């Protein structure tokens, strides 16, 4: 499918320069009788309206030779710079526009200065310097506001909107376009309104409103045809064709692209527009799976893009060539072209295009089996797409990442990206509904404008009919507005309910997992306590009973025998007491309840060391105040869970438990010198260890970090709690934690 980055922008100059041929003829007649400043002015205007760039350059050069004032010299030099820009001789254009600015600053005329800044902006826009283009066009707008020229202000707004779109700042771009259209419609400037419709169509498509974008491009085409501006028609045709591809109307798209190419080949053979046309035809053939024909067209597009010296356009062509070779499973060749596209889009700051290229590169590396590079570019594509408002690219990024994470068995990450993809897909459906509303509104506004023009030309005898029609239009407008508001309310209400439902389902799943972990942990603990009581305490009771039964023997009447029985019974009772204290410690250490986590951890470490299985060292810094009960219990249980795992699996000889607290945070670390392991196996394991730890972390808003590797010894587990989180934990939450 053809990419959205194919779209063109119509970048306007200070004054509309493509008048009808009759205007040029009239100026030529006037030139024969003109002299002095009038002759200079006519030559400058001829340079602006001429369809032939070389002829335009000749007129502007003559005007400069006759110019006497700084204002005339600035205008003539600026027009020479503009013409060199159209001839893609950008170094010459920059040289002359610099001279034009020097003349304009001497004249100190804000309108003359604004024209020069506008030319600066156009040159940088054509060469991919979008930040510079934005700066100079905003400077032009400031001077035009100072001069009070609304038409010139509208032209600057249109230029600024175009650059902002290239920078993916869509909301700001739409504001400037709407302001420019309002000015042009108010002054009945159809040519300029057509240019603004073209730019608005580009922006609407970037936002995913494709039907409205097509209507906007179609309005621009109608105005260009009516005004006889054949040189401007390819702009509208190429954009209409690109939208048609996205709407899967391939026959319409092919017809529009070929029509634009034929107009260009018959005319001035503009290399930039020809590159767009050939690129578009190639995209249609690619969508039809006619890859050989598509490859030929893309090669033609590359030739013209190089001639135009347009890095933005060239990056698009390389991107499409990469797609073709990828479809033919020539993955290394595809990577070569996609890497060129990636480099160019990075250079020119095309964030939206760069996100798309990164996703395609990642997919290609995945096909080559280079999963590490694939993961790198998938992550880059996700990050870039989330910086833009391009929902189509963002949707594709989430879908591709979901499939990739699933392939490499990262099922939790895969599920997260699937949820993002589904939410964005629902959002696009809602946007399309709103797009239909916008399309109806556009059609209504167009019909309203046509009716107003027709009514202005009517005879005085039709005044009564005009009033009746106006009344009906107002009623219709009110009804449509009410209908629009109702539809918008319903759509937003549905979207809100869907969002709430998805959130509730996610919360239920999380709660269910936590409850399962708690129940499994409780059952496990109960089994262990029952086993400890049966195997330890129960056996000791049996020994005590057996010892006491010895008193029934005949020789038990002897004092020595009774003393031996007594001593043996005392020893068993001491063992029973120690066993009972150990079981009670596991259930809920009284040291933890009465004296706090510092003392409890030290007692815990001492018990482990006394077992002679491993040496456990406990270090505590600056933990003088007692923590909330839920925090102390949770931290102790997390430490206990982790140390038990270390003793079971790590084959460690030394464990260090460290508790540190300062003004900003509290940190618990458990470090051992045992065998390392793959942390992903721990996170994704089927056991309840991680789930138990995670449940307690969620209760105290803790952060967890694990540092271990199978190829080295030693593991460190870290839990961080921010001081602010500790203070915000409510007392009632303590009831949620049991022994």
Describe this structure in words.
It is built from 29 helices and five strands. It is mainly α and 739 residues long. Among the domains are: 310-446, Tetratricopeptide repeat domain (Serine Threonine Protein Phosphatase 5, Tetratricopeptide repeat, Alpha Horseshoe), CATH 1.25.40.10; 595-736, Heat Shock Protein 90. Strands 1-2-3-5-4 form a five-stranded mixed β-sheet. A hairpin with a 3-residue loop joins β2 and β3 (665-675). The two termini are 60 Å apart. GO terms for molecular function: ATP binding; phosphorelay sensor kinase activity; protein dimerization activity. Residues 1-20 form the signal peptide.
List the helices and strands and how they pair.
Layout lengths: L20 H13 L2 H14 L3 H14 L3 H17 L3 H18 L2 H17 L3 H18 L2 H17 L3 H17 L3 H17 L3 H18 L5 H14 L3 H17 L4 H17 L3 H18 L2 H17 L3 H18 L2 H17 L3 H15 L5 H17 L3 H46 L6 H87 L9 H29 L2 H6 L1 H14 L4 E7 L7 H22 L3 E8 L3 E11 L3 H5 L5 H12 L2 E5 L5 E10 H6 L11
Parallel strand pairs: 1-2
Antiparallel strand pairs: 2-3, 3-5, 4-5
Helix pairs in contact: 1-2, 2-3, 2-4, 3-4, 4-5, 4-6, 5-6, 6-7, 6-8, 7-8, 8-9, 8-10, 9-10, 10-11, 10-12, 11-12, 11-21, 12-13, 12-14, 13-14, 14-15, 14-16, 15-16, 16-17, 16-18, 17-18, 18-19, 18-20, 19-20, 20-21, 21-22, 22-23, 22-28, 25-26, 26-28
């Amino acid at each position: 499918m053809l990419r959205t980055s194919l779209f063109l922008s119509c970048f306007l100059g200070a004054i509309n320069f493509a008048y009808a041929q009759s205007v040029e003829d009239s100026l030529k007649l006037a030139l024969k009788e003109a002299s002095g400043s009038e002759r200079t002015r006519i030559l400058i205007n001829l340079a602006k309206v001429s369809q032939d760039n070389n002829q335009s350059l000749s007129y502007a050069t003559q005007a400069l030779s006759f110019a006497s004032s700084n204002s005339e010299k600035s205008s003539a030099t600026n027009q020479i710079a503009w013409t060199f820009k159209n001839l893609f001789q950008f170094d010459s254009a920059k040289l002359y526009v610099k001279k034009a600015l020097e003349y304009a600053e001497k004249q100190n005329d804000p309108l003359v200065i604004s024209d020069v800044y506008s030319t600066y902006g156009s040159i940088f826009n054509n060469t991919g310097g979008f930040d510079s283009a934005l700066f100079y066009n905003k400077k032009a707008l400031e001077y035009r506001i100072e001069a009070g020229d609304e038409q010139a202000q509208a032209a600057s707004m249109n230029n600024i909107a175009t650059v902002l779109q290239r920078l993916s700042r869509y909301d700001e771009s739409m504001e400037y376009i709407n302001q420019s259209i309002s000015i042009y419609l108010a002054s009945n400037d159809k040519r300029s309104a057509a240019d603004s419709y073209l730019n608005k169509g580009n922006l609407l498509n970037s936002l995913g409103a494709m039907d409205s974008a097509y209507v906007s491009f179609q309005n621009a085409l109608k105005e260009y045809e009516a005004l006889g501006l054949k040189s401007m028609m390819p702009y509208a045709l190429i954009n209409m064709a690109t939208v048609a591809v996205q709407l899967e109307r391939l026959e319409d798209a092919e017809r529009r692209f070929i029509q634009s190419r034929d107009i260009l080949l018959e005319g001035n053979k503009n290399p930039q527009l020809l590159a767009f046309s050939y690129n578009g035809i190639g995209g249609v053939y690619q969508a039809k799976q006619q890859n050989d024909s598509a490859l030929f067209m893309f090669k033609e597009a590359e030739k013209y893009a190089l001639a135009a010296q347009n890095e933005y356009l060239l990056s698009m062509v390389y991107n499409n060539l990469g797609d073709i070779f990828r479809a033919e499973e020539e993955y290394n060749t595809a990577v070569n072209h996609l890497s060129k596209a990636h480099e160019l889009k990075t250079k020119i700051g095309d964030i939206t295009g760069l996100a798309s290229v990164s996703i395609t590169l990642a997919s290609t590396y995945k096909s080559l089996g280079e999963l590490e590079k694939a993961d790198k570019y998938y992550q880059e594509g996700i990050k870039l797409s989330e910086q833009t408002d391009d929902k189509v690219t963002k949707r594709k990024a989430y879908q591709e990442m979901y499939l990739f994470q699933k392939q490499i068995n990262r099922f939790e990450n895969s599920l997260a990206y699937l949820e993002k993809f589904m939410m964005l897909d629902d959002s696009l459906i809602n946007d399309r509904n709103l797009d239909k509303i916008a399309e109806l509104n556009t059609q209504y506004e167009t019909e309203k404008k046509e009716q107003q023009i027709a009514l202005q030309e009517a005879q005085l005898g039709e005044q009564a009919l005009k009033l009746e029609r106006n009344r009906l239009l107002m009623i219709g407008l009110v009804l449509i507005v009410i209908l629009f508001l109702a539809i918008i309310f319903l759509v937003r209400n549905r979207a809100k309910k869907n969002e709430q439902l998805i959130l509730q389902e996610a919360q239920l799943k999380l709660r269910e997992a936590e409850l399962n972990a708690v129940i499994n942990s409780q059952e496990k603990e109960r089994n262990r306590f029952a086993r400890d009581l049966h195997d330890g305490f129960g056996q000791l009771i049996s020994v005590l009973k057996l010892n006491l039964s010895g008193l029934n023997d005949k020789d038990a009447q002897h004092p020595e025998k009774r003393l031996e029985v007594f001593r043996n019974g005392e020893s068993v009772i001491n063992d029973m007491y120690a066993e009972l204290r150990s079981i009670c410690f596991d259930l809920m250490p009284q040291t933890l309840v009465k004296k706090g986590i510092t003392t409890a951890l030290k007692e815990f470490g001492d018990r482990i060391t006394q077992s002679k299985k491993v040496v456990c060292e406990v270090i505590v810094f600056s933990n003088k105040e007692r923590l909330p009960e839920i925090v102390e219990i949770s931290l102790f249980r997390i430490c206990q869970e982790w140390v038990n795992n270390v003793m079971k699996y790590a084959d460690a000889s030394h464990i260090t438990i460290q508790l540190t607290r300062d003004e900003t945070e509290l940190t618990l670390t458990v470090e051992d010198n045992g065998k390392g392991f793959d942390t992903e196996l721990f996170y994704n394991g089927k056991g309840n260890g991680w789930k138990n730890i995670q449940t307690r972390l969620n209760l105290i808003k803790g952060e967890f970090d694990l540092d271990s590797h199978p190829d080295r010894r030693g593991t460190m587990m870290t839990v961080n709690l921010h001081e602010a989180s500790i203070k915000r934990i409510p007392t009632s939450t303590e009831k949620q934690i049991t022994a």
